[in-house]
Amino acid sequence: MLDILPDLFDQHAQQLQWLPIQWCDFGGVPTFYGEVQTVRCFEDNSRVKEVLAMPGRGRVLLVDGGGSLNRALLGDLIAQSAQDCGWAGVVILGAVRDVHALKGMSLGIKALGACPIKTQRKGIGELDCVLHIEGVAVNSGDYVYADRHGIAISSTAFHIDSEGAIKEW
Ligand SMILES: O=C([O-])CC(=O)C(=O)O
């Protein structure tokens, strides 16, 4: 799929909130969208690993890692698990590693940057919490729309067909 955000904003700007962050694109799928599940954690990816081993059903995991580039919250093994479990994408306000392998995955992956060091898992982190990213509140059950421009959040589910036609669900 090509770009989706310009047409989405042209047609439905009132229902969208833009996250003004220039993300790095690490996955093999630059355009992806789906229902959000939220995680908040800091330099501990326990929750990320647990959740991405559960059925994704086309959803997108949005992780507020506090912006830390000191530890990677996702690497090739967890990303493979996400792909195998049917997640559409993972968005990390923080870092990832195993960058070469991530590019080969059928998964959307956006993050602030890369770091070669993994976290120490101590079981710390929250699932399904309200995240505040660039002044935008995001809950599990909202929707993420991502392409090479970046990421928009909405409480509305849109379906975008392979021709780029947008339908509200
Ligand atoms: O295990 C981790 O914490 C991150 C990682 O390297 C992987 O997902 O392969």
TrEMBL record:
It comes from the Bacteria. Its cofactor is Mg(2+); a divalent metal cation. InterPro entries: RraA (IPR010203), RraA/RraA-like (IPR005493), RraA/RraA-like_sf (IPR036704). It is an enzyme of class 4 (lyase). Its EC number is 4.1.1.112, 4.1.3.17. Keywords: Lyase, Magnesium, Metal-binding. Pfam families: RraA-like. Catalyzes the aldol cleavage of 4-hydroxy-4-methyl-2-oxoglutarate (HMG) into 2 molecules of pyruvate. Also contains a secondary oxaloacetate (OAA) decarboxylase activity due to the common pyruvate enolate transition state formed following C-C bond cleavage in the retro-aldol and decarboxylation reactions. This is 4-hydroxy-4-methyl-2-oxoglutarate aldolase. The lineage of its organism: Bacteria, Pseudomonadati, Pseudomonadota, Gammaproteobacteria, Alteromonadales.
